[in-house]
Amino acid sequence: MRIVLVGAGGVGTAFARIAARRGFAELVIADYDFARAEHAAAASDRFSAVRIDARDADAVAGLLADHRCDALMNAADPRFVMPLYTAALRSGVHYLDMAMSLSHPHPQSPYTKTGVKLGDDQFAMAGEWENSGKLALVGIGVEPGLSDVFARHAADELFSEIDEIGVRDGANLEVQGYDFAPTFSIWTTIEECLNPPVIWEADRGWFTTAPFSEPEIFRFPAGIGLVECVNVEHEEVLLIPRWINARRVTFKYGLGAEFIAVLQTLHKLGLDRTDPVAVGGNEVSPRDVVAACLPDPAGLGAKMTGLTCAGTWVTGTGKDGAPREVYLYNVVDNAWSMAEYGSQAVVWQTAVNPVIALELIDSGVWSGAGVLGPEALPAAPFLDLLTDYGAPWACEERAAR
After folding, report:
1. Whether residue 92 is found in the same domain as residue 151
2. Cβ–Cβ under 8 Å, residues 243 and 375
3. CATH code, domain with 58
4. What is the pLDDT of residue 344?
5. Helix 146-153 crosses helix 380-388 at what angle (to 10 degrees)?
6. Residue 401 pLDDT > 80
7. What is the DSSP code (8-state) at residue 301?
8. In a domain, 137, yes or no
């Protein structure tokens, strides 16, 4: 399978290192920074590097044609979803991403009503993808991605009726030597944390609430323990209800009080803005400046310790008719991912899932045409491969409330 991988940051590089150990893929790794692409391509002699501007759909389509590729893997940040998505459709190749097209809050009622939702621009083109016979598999990172696969598994194997599907993410990671060092793209983190979170309820549909709302203490496994989680805008809430029946779908992130305070300060100062402002005769995006001032998450692995946990909490009625509550999860230890792959835990846990998905597509185990989320496809083969890749998952039974 010939794949163009666009984006050679932390997740893209981890993707290349994971794919290098599987024999199914040849990668053309494309990035605006050619040196980064070369660095990622060093993982295998099956990989090559090119320079590309991900905003240029024509150039990306030309790259796909020149290399006779079967799929485009988008590992760039969400700003570049639509040109890459369009280029893949035009080129007649499969498309995968880990974050969906951007949302735009409701202009009058941002904290009660949805405006343009995450992925709306992509789903608007679903008919064109169906007619092309190609698959656009959206949201196939860890969250969204593995979390959606867990939801599918719960719906198929564990529950007869589901009350709530709640994605819950927490960690006990620490970064030595920094007062503030996000372990994932700050650009994406600002976007998802400061936008109005979306909630799904079967009798109401999608609606929004205020950022960081509905705090709850959630107990994470593997010794991580109790972490306060809050509502955050995330793709699972927009994807899961399309294919799985549940009375409620939520996403909550264990950010911590200090992290929330920093994000709120950035918002108050206008430093979360993406529109350029004039500075000394130049036009710069405040959010890009924030990102440039912080350490690159991909380079933090050697200074990180601890575990990261991604999972899906499900409540409802089990197959036996009794109340049931479970937490399906995957934990990655930073010490392990650094020793095995040279990639820190958060980016490795994100990157492994699209590699698995592409292997399943290449083998024909996963197939389809149109715009699909991970929960639209069978969970069992994915979860089997996840364990085979060295990232076992678990299902923890909890006392039904």
Report:
1. no
2. yes
3. 3.40.50.720
4. 95
5. 130
6. no
7. G
8. no
**Which range of residues forms the domain containing residue 19?**
2-97
Which residues, including other chains, have CB under 8 Å from residue 7's CB and lie 6 or more apart? 30, 31, 54, 74, 75, 76, 77, 80
Question: Is the pLDDT confidence value at 191 over 90?
Answer: no
Run of H or E residues at 388: helix 380-388
Long-range interactions of 290-295: CB distance < 8 A, separation 24+: 290/186, 290/190, 290/266, 291/185, 291/186, 291/187, 294/180, 294/181, 294/182, 294/186, 295/178, 295/181
Q: What are 218-250's pLDDT values in tens digits?
A: 999 999 999 999 999 999 999 999 999 999 999
- DSSP assignments along 75-119, one per residue: -S-GGGHHHHHHHHHHHT-EEEESS-PPPB--SS-TTTS-SBPTT
Least confident of 77-81, 179-183, 327-331: 179-183
Helix boundaries (H) for 1-95: 10-19, 34-41, 57-66, 81-91
115 within some domain = no
Number of domains in the chain: 2
How many CA atoms within 13 Å lie on the side-chain side of 40? Answer: 33
> Residue 396 pairs with which residues in a beta bridge?
327
Query: In this structure, which amino acid lies at residue 48?
Result: S
268-277, 310-319, 371-380 — which is least confidently predicted? 268-277
The CA distances from residue 233 to 43, 267, 291, in Å, are: 34, 16, 20
CATH code: domain of residue 268: 3.30.360.10
Residue 178 lies in a domain: yes
User: From the CB of residue 264, how many other CB atoms can be counted at a distance below 10 Å?
Assistant: 15
Condensed to tens digits (0 to 9), the pLDDT of residues 110-135 reads 999 999 999 999 999 999 999 999 99
CB 309 within 8 Å of CB 222 = yes
Looking up tokens 């069992």 gives 380
Angle (CA) 330 385 14, round 5°: 70
pLDDT at 184 over 80: no
Whether residues 195 and 256 share a domain: the answer is yes
